Amino acid sequence: MDGQRCPEQTPQRGVPEVLLCGECTQVPGPKGRYALSLTATHLHLQWLEQAPESPGCLLSLADCIGCCAFKGRDPADPGGYFSVFWYPLKKKWWRSLEARQREAKTFRLETCRDPKENLKTAERWAEKIRELSVQRIPKEEEGLYSCLPQPRQLLVLVNPHGGKGEAQNLFYSQILPMLVEANIGFNLVVTDRQNQARELMRDEDLSRWDAVVIVSGDGLVYEVVNGLMERPDWKSAIKKPVGILPGGSGNGLAAAINHYAGNDQVSNQELLTNCTFFLCKGLVAPMDLVSFTTGSGKCIFSFLSFAWGFVSDVDIESEKYRMMGHTRFTVGTLVRLSSLRTYKGRLAYLRAEEASNQNTEIFPNPSSSSTATSHQNCQKLQPNFCNDTHQSLNANVVHQITSESSVDEISNLIPLDQPVPNHWTVVKEEEFVLILAIYQSHLGTSYFTAPMVSRPDDSLIHLFYVRSGISRTALLKFFLAMEKGNHLEHSCPHLVYMPVKAFRLEPFTNKGIMTIDGEALECGPIQGQLHSRLARIISGSKK
Ligand code: ADP
Ligand code: MG
Asked: For residues 462 and 2, which has the higher predicted lDDT (pLDDT)?
């Protein structure tokens, strides 16, 4: 096999051009010689003792994460070798859901007696396969999506406390082998305590890393996002691509990214392999964030959800069942249903429709490609959020304080101690069972809460609330149907759904808890607003 010259081809319509071809054997593997050919999209393997019209084996380079060439172990062996690693979507024999599964093949070639020449030929194959396996940016996302460089260096943060406490084991047993196959460099930080990752993100020289990768649940992503937003250079820092590899119990972001790629809703190891595959391919997509300001003056950034009432209670109360993994939320739901209660407060929101009815847009148009201008956009578009008096007040403040925090700089909501503007909707009811704002499709691996979300940057906050009066059975049915995302199909008179750009909640008592991205927050007045495409997340491309 010479791996370079192929017989002269007359290009034929519909027949892909063969870029490399030759003969080889497989090791270990079935005996006999094979014809191997490489096109721009596939590696084709044909057993030479088979009839030429038999289809052979076709490996898609879209599934390939790496390829490496090497010499044989025996010094007397003149052969050159290369191994290909790919992860096609497959079903296990006992279930109907597809997930990525590892396959590897090693080929031996010997075109002459010179081992150096044979190794060179193997290297040529490996290099070409790697080049053709590079993630392509989908046409419709050009200018918006990007790709991590190759070679790449990652900062990997592992939370040993996440989920059942298995994140570190998962890193060594599942993630590391894939990073090696994809030839990706990394530095590993295993956190010792809560907020260590947040502090690290505040001070780290980010230019050393092509991406920051989190092996945990959503809590560690929350730390990373907030750490990045606390930096003086937050505008560029928040553009650092973030990767999520599920190693927690609430893996909402990982489940959402898996869903956006068109994959089946899988969990545990299968979800981890899918997400590690995305990381190896390195496609980067923009992601919306929501900024919150609280009555006590806290500024928080969020990528997933805000909850108050039933959902936040379940999240926090189920901490004690952490060893169950994501099942802890099901158990927590049943426990809380048995002592169902209501929560009193005032809710107001700015409907997405209302925001775009104002004569200027509030946030960047989803089809405009720049994410770097979100700050300018928010300031420019301030009149939509504020009444006129406040607008001039706010402009003054922005002018006087030069080293603003990121929230001060980009938030343009009227302060919490003033009434919401007239074009906001104030909800009549003041007694709720739950209020949930979500900006990704999944709240957890088995919670397909917002099936209307199909990308990480849809520029909407999906606001749900359940009024008091709902029966336990109806609420149980609602949560059971959420696993498959069918919960909105059955009419439920107590449930209200509204796509919004901003909202404000003023609970009547400070007792209890709220959660942001699953992290506890003391209960009190709070408001949040959407920032379209502020962050960047490693994603998969649609099948
Ligand atoms: P899970 O989905 O299992 O809740 P998370 O990623 O949400 O996993 O992490 C749970 C909590 O652990 C978060 O509040 C996070 O800030 C915190 N945390 C991070 N590192 C550590 C550590 N080393 N020890 C204890 N807690 C940690
Ligand atoms: Mg968590």
From this structure: 462
Query: 28-72 pLDDT, tens per residue?
Result: 877 889 999 999 999 999 989 877 777 789 999 999 999 999 999
Pairing of strands 242-246, 89-91: unpaired
Atom number in ligand 1 closest to CA 160: 23
Domain residues for the domain of 381 are 290-532
How far, in Å, from the CA of 248 to the mean position of ligand 2? 7
519 lines ligand 1 (CB under 6 A): yes
Domain containing residue 40: CATH number = 2.30.29.30
With respect to residue 422, please indicate whether it lies within any of the assigned structural domains.
yes
Atom number, ligand 1, closest to the C-alpha of residue 219: 7
Determine, yes or no, domain membership for 11: no
Atom of ligand 1 nearest to the CA of 251: 2
Among all residues, which ones are annotated catalytic?
218
List the residue whose alpha carbon is closest to atom 16 of ligand 1: 194
CA 339 – ligand 2 centroid, Å: 23
For residues 319 and 467, state if they share a domain. Answer: yes
Torsion-angle region of 143 (φ positive above 0: left; ψ -120 to 50: alpha; else: beta): left
Same domain, 306 and 433: yes
Does residue 327 share a domain with residue 183? no
Residue 199: inside a domain: yes
Share of the chain above pLDDT 70, in %: 89
Question: How many angstroms is it from 296 CA to the middle of ligand 2?
Answer: 23
**Is the pTM higher than 0.70?**
yes
